[in-house]
Amino acid sequence: MGYETLEKVIELTDSSEALKKRLDSVADVLSHAFSFDQCAIYLYDEDKKIFNLCSLAGDEGGVVVTTYQEREGLPHHALAMDKPVIANMSDADRVVWRGIEDRGMTGFATAAVYPVKDDTSNYGVLYLKNRHRKVLSKRRRKLLDIIALQLSMTIKTQYCISNLTAANAQMRDMQARLIHAEKLVALGEMAATLAHEIKNPLLSIGGFAKRLSRQFNEDAPARLYVDMIAKESIRVEKLLDTILSFSVNKGFELNEEDINNVVNDALAFFEGEFRRVKIKVDRELKPDITPVRVDREQLKLAFSNFFANSMQAMGNGGILTLRTYSDDRWVFVEVTDTGGGIEPDIIRNIFNPFFTTKEDGTGLGLSIAHAIVTNHNGIIEVVNDLGKGVSFIIKLPAALKG
Amino acid sequence: MKKKVLVVDDEEGIRLFYKEELKEEGMDVHAAASGEEALEKLEADKYDLVILDIKLPGIDGIEVLRQIKEKWKTLPVILCTAYHHYKQDFGTWASDAYIVKSSDMKELKDVVKTILNRRN
Ligand SMILES: Nc1ncnc2c1ncn2[C@@H]1O[C@H](COP(=O)(O)OP(=O)(O)OP(=O)(O)O)[C@@H](O)[C@H]1O
Ligand SMILES: [Mg+2]
Ligand SMILES: [Mg+2]
Fold first, then answer.
1. Per-domain residue ranges for chain A?
2. CATH hierarchy code of domain A180-247
3. Contact B13 A203 (CB under 8 A)
4. Is the CATH code 3.30.450.40 the one for domain A2-165?
5. Closest by alpha carbon to B97, among B113, B85, B82, B79?
6. Which fold has domain B4-118?
7. Which of A338, A339, A366, B52 is the most exposed place for a label (fewest CB within 10 A)?
8. SS (H, E, C) A194-217
């Protein structure tokens, strides 16, 4: 027993298995090699400030503590002292050693608790227990020292890798969003140019059709045809106006605003219509809310698109709930309707330009809203409750003070 | 005396459409297809109102507006374009009105009448 154990531990900790699996194997090896009844490895959870049992080997019949509080028992003591604790109880029924109570000691006579840490962080403890009193030779203690160090390096490396992976995923996500936003900008510019080119000749077509119409009798067939031309060209004209009224390359005019006012302004436009189709509006707007720096007109346009969609989803009436609140980073606007929600298989498309399920929809509403919110460094989240309704949560960065 | 109106637009169809519509309102309507042509016409003749497109080949409508306001300070100009987003700037450009082009002439006619009556 000695270097083979160490070699084995190093081999196990270096493997490509998941951290938990590696620690399980190490616990197994140690309980045998050092012939302890129980060998446990606890990991420190920095957020919750507790020690969680990660791996356990040996006698599973005995008392096992699954979580220790930050300041509880021998694990805390070992880490606070920054050195191993070898505790020998006078008899196996006692759980207090030198004033330190440890629930895990019930039924055990000897414990060896090794801190797993480095200069900057506590990672956890290696916790060995035996029912009968046990003496650890100096050599064995030295060996456990080295093993605890090896464990701390293994865990640290694993944490670094996890952090890197998370950072990487976050970056990829941001990149994807950027590309999406860029696409929308390019698309917006293209659409605006195209719309302008179409609109001019269309005006002549529609305008002259109207003039021509006046030259026919009410009941002449030609009058019907010409009126149709006029009517249809007005329809296209309106569509082009929607595209042209939203021009992404237009300079933003950012002002500090109370988001409640912007919401109310956008809402004012819909109030008559809401009454007509029996939509009740519930406003839960937080007074004195943190201000946002936004282009008021653009945001009104974004909110209008959410309101219009909700209204269309609640053709037979319903409740539109508008909620605003904030934390220290974001100001939130929640638009919730009772319009039945969105079919899950189309939900990933709803922000795509020209995606629509409506006969007379342009499919531009949400892509415009998305581009506007993104241009404000904001985020839109969708909470879909199929059969009930949908919530769009618009998060805008809180304005910096001063 | 008929009011003399100059329509500036690069689209032939729109020039003709506006001309016909405004003629019916009893105005003497002339047209120019570019900014350069418009300025020439304004030098040669006296007008009561200019209806000006923004997107023009050669010098654009904004520049034409600037030159008009420099030379003929009191001559009213209505900016008329397919775009919406210039609207908030039109005050700073000192035009007298801003109209988004539409086949429905009502808004333009109303504005034209208001401005011409104001001049009386
Ligand atoms: N509140 C909602 N409830 C149910 N479905 C919705 C809601 N909002 C959006 N959708 C779905 O997302 C699609 C895309 O919405 P978007 O606003 O982009 O376009 P549209 O409403 O179809 O067209 P337009 O905005 O021109 O009227 C809609 O056709 C609809 O299927
Ligand atoms: Mg919509
Ligand atoms: Mg033009």
1. 2-165, 180-247, 255-397
2. 1.10.287
3. yes
4. yes
5. B79
6. Rossmann fold (3.40.50)
7. A338
8. HHHHHHHHHHHHHHHHHHHHCCCC
- Smallest Cβ–Cβ distance between A210 and the set B11, B55, B103 belongs to B103
| Helix residue ranges per DSSP H, A214-288 | 221-245, 259-268, 271-276
CA-A392 nearest atom, ligand 1: 1
pLDDT tens digits in sequence order for chain A, 402 residues long:
577 888 888 888 887 788 999 999 999 999 999 999 999 999 999 999 999 999 999 977 788 999 999 999 999 999 999 999 999 987 767 889 998 999 999 989 999 999 999 988 999 999 999 999 989 999 999 999 999 999 999 999 999 998 898 888 888 877 777 777 666 667 777 777 888 889 889 999 999 999 999 999 999 999 999 999 999 998 898 888 877 776 544 556 789 999 999 999 999 888 888 999 999 999 999 999 999 999 888 898 899 899 999 999 999 999 999 999 999 999 999 999 999 999 999 998 899 877 889 887 777 789 888 888 988 889 999 999 999 999 999 999 999 765
Provide residues of A within 8 Å CB-CB of chain B: 192, 195-196, 199-208, 210-211, 230, 233-234, 237, 240-241, 244-245, 247, 250, 253, 297
Q: List chain B domain ranges.
A: 4-118
**Hey, what long-range contacts does B70-74 have (CB within 8 A, 24 or more apart)?**
B71/B42, B72/B42
User: CATH second-level architecture of A255-397?
Assistant: 2-Layer Sandwich (3.30)
Cα–Cα nearest to A314, from A362, A268, A277:
A277
